[in-house]
Amino acid sequence: MSTTSQASSKAGRLQDRVAIVTGSSSGMGRAIALALAREGARIVCADLKEEAAQHGFEEDKHIPTHTVITNNGGTSVFKKCDMGKPEEIYELIDFAVSTYSKLDILINNAGLWLPLRDFAVETDDMWDRIMGINGKGTAISMRQAIKQFLTQPVDPVSGCRGRIVNISSSAGIVAVAREATYGASKAAVSMLTRNAALDHAKDYININAVCPGVVRTALSSTNFQDPAIIKEMKKGTPWPRLGEPKDIANVVVFLCTDEAGWITGQNIAVDGGFTVGIPL
Ligand SMILES: NC(=O)c1ccc[n+]([C@@H]2O[C@H](COP(=O)([O-])OP(=O)(O)OC[C@H]3O[C@@H](n4cnc5c(N)ncnc54)[C@H](O)[C@@H]3O)[C@@H](O)[C@H]2O)c1
Q1: In the chain, at which end, N or C, are there fewer CB atoms within 10 A of the end residue's CB?
Q2: Which domains are assigned to the chain?
Q3: Residues near 110 by beta carbon (within 8 Å), at least 6 away in sequence
Q4: Counts for the chain of helices (H) and strands (E), in that order
Q5: Among 218, 182, 157, 201, which residue's Cα sits nearest to residue 17?
Q6: Where does residue 1 rank: exposed (0-12), middle (13-18), buried (19+ CB within 10 A)?
Q7: What is the dihedral of CA 144, 255, 219, 217, to 10 degrees?
Q8: Which helix (H) or strand (E) holds 137?
Q9: Atom of ligand 1 minimally distant from the CA of 85
Q10: CA quadruple 101, 27, 82, 72: dihedral positive or negative?
């Protein structure tokens, strides 16, 4: 089914909530933005550019995510934001609040992964770029969103002031060969999730993370073009198929709903069993 036909503005579990999704133009971010919009949320789509990556797998990638949402009767705008640039993150949170008067949900999905290599051949520049976007960028947007949440009353319907879902990785849980700095950056995201959740549970703010396994997106497309790597990825994934963006989006949506109101500080692996062990 095309993602175009999946977006809808009919009343849903997140009706009129305001959500920011970073890295919304492609892959999981796009699937998450469309899925939240289907539940009635108003979406600030944030990315480096509004066009989807052309090496991605979406059937309708010629249409920007926010346009797919509005074409289907939903409410969405695009805001350019480089998660490696702190001032653009500050602007993003301010933009969402000035556009829709509040912020209910932040999805920190944008991330940088670089093609596989041994740790010894990684560079200082790679460390700064990966940590800057995945680690520092996530920390800044979380902090700014929490500051905004603290200005808002506890919503009597949702029972919280706001929700954050970070997209970490199975590589932040188990060591994955030739992904050292990326794995360290995602471990930082996962631990930041737990620590911030601990500090702000008393404030009625839920903070969780989803840790995807191998998912077919633009980011992982080089892996999906190499039969030897596909074989390795399947070998490490107990479930008989690899992941699709909607597998992640479904869980993110659940974590944003009122049903998930007593879940906080959790890193939920959505990985076809990747982090459970190596199947026979
Ligand atoms: N694909 C996988 O197998 C996999 C597995 C585990 C975790 N992840 C994580 O999932 C998240 C989404 O990745 P994806 O696989 O959907 O990738 P993707 O390439 O399909 O989409 C990523 C989006 O993020 C945007 N982006 C990249 N850098 C950015 C920046 N500095 N600021 C703002 N936006 C930026 C890109 O433009 C793109 O639209 C990432 O955090 C990634 O690390 C991916």
Answers
A1: C
A2: 3-270 (3.40.50.720)
A3: 22, 23, 29, 46, 47, 83, 133, 137
A4: 9, 7
A5: 157
A6: exposed
A7: -150
A8: none
A9: 31
A10: negative
Radius of gyration, CA atoms only, the chain: 18
**Residue 51 has which token pair?**
């066009």
For residue 234, the model assigns a pLDDT of 92
Q: What is the mean pLDDT of residues 64-70?
A: 98
Is the separation of the CB atoms in 69 and 37 below 8 Å?
A: yes
The two structure tokens encoding residue 119: 């740790």
* Contact in structure between 41 and 17 (CB atoms under 8 Å): yes
Question: Could you report how far apart the first and last alpha carbons of the chain are, in Å?
Answer: 33
pLDDT value at 126 more than 70: yes
Give the model confidence (pLDDT) of 208-252 as tens digits: 999 999 999 999 888 898 999 999 899 999 999 999 999 999 999
Helix (H, G, I), strand (E, B) or coil at 268: strand
Q: Which residues does 151 contact at the CB level (< 8 Å), separation at least 6?
A: none
182 belongs to the catalytic site: yes
Pocket probe mutation, ligand 1, options 30, 50, 113, max atoms within 8 Å of Cβ: 113
Q: Which amino acid is at 6?
A: Q
Using CA positions, which residue lies closest to atom 22 of ligand 1? 23
**DSSP helix/strand/coil, 215:** strand
Q: Hey, whose CA ends up nearest to atom 24 of ligand 1?
A: 23
Q: Which residue has the tokens 């199947």?
A: 279
Tokens of 1: 């089914």
CA of 108 to the centre of ligand 1 (A): 10
